[in-house]
Amino acid sequence: MKFFRKKFRQNKVEGGFTLIETIVATGVIVTALVSSLALINSSLVLASNFQDRLTASNLATEGIEVIRNIRDNNWLQNLSWNNGLLSGDYNVAYNAFSLTPFNDTPLRLNSSNGVYDYSAGSDQTIFKRRLSIANLSGYEMKVVSTVSWQRRSQSYSIAVEDHLFNWR
Fold first, then answer.
1. Measured in Å, how far apart are the chain's first and last C-alpha atoms?
2. Considering its fold, how many domains does the chain have in total?
3. Closest to 93 in 3D by CA, of 72, 74, 57, 65
4. Considering the domain boundaries, does residue 8 fall inside one?
5. Residue 1 resides in a domain
6. Alpha-carbon distance 87 to 101, whole Å?
7. What's the pLDDT at 28?
8. What is the span of the domain harbouring residue 60?
9. Is 117's pLDDT higher than 70?
């Protein structure tokens, strides 16, 4: 009989979780899962934002390089260094030797070779590039390449500025 009482007392003392303990444990687990999912979501948003910024900065730098290439090509053809580079706002493609007036057209991505252009390419992107040229004197011009885009109803832009000179 003693053994039965001792065994019965142990079972009563070592009882299972109560309902309150179960609710608290479930709340802790749910809070941890929701926090983890929120962290994953914000990480994905930041990753896409960084990708957009990297692409935009490369496109802005490419715009400056195209203008520099046009200037260098003018020298090779024994033309004035700023021939065709009048003050104004322009669209310019990566392989252009002339400028077209700015018309707020989004760049297109050719997914087969990864090149951004205005006419070729099957995938329209969110990026728009504006090149602004200001002839400051007979030997200096200021070029500003601005790439703008919109993601999740928020507007972004990156601008790169360079001064090109007639150093010949």
1. 112
2. 1
3. 65
4. no
5. no
6. 11
7. 94
8. 15-165
9. yes
Q: Who contacts 120 (Cβ-Cβ below 8 Å, separation ≥6)?
A: 108, 110
Specify the DSSP class assigned to residue 106: P
**Amino acid identity for residue 135 in this structure:** N
Strand ranges of the sheet holding 123-124, from the earlier edge strand across to the other edge: 115-117, 108-110, 123-124
* Residue at 2 is within a domain: no
* Burial zone of 152 (CB within 10 Å; 0-12 exposed, 13-18 middle, 19+ buried): exposed
Q: What are the angstrom distances between the C-alpha of 81 and each of 65, 95, 112?
A: 15, 18, 35
Q: CB within 8 A of 62, min separation 6: which ones? A: 94, 116, 145
**Stretch (H or E) spanning 144:** strand 140-151
Is residue 10, in this structure, part of any structural domain at all? no
Structural tokens at position 163: 């001064």
| H helices present in the chain, as ranges | 2-13, 19-76
pTM score > 0.90 for this model? no
Question: Residue 132 in contact with residue 91, Cβ under 8 Å?
Answer: no
**How many CA atoms are closer than 13 Å to the CA of 129, on its beta-carbon side?**
28
Q: What does the pLDDT look like over 67-82, one tens digit per residue?
A: 999 999 999 999 999 9
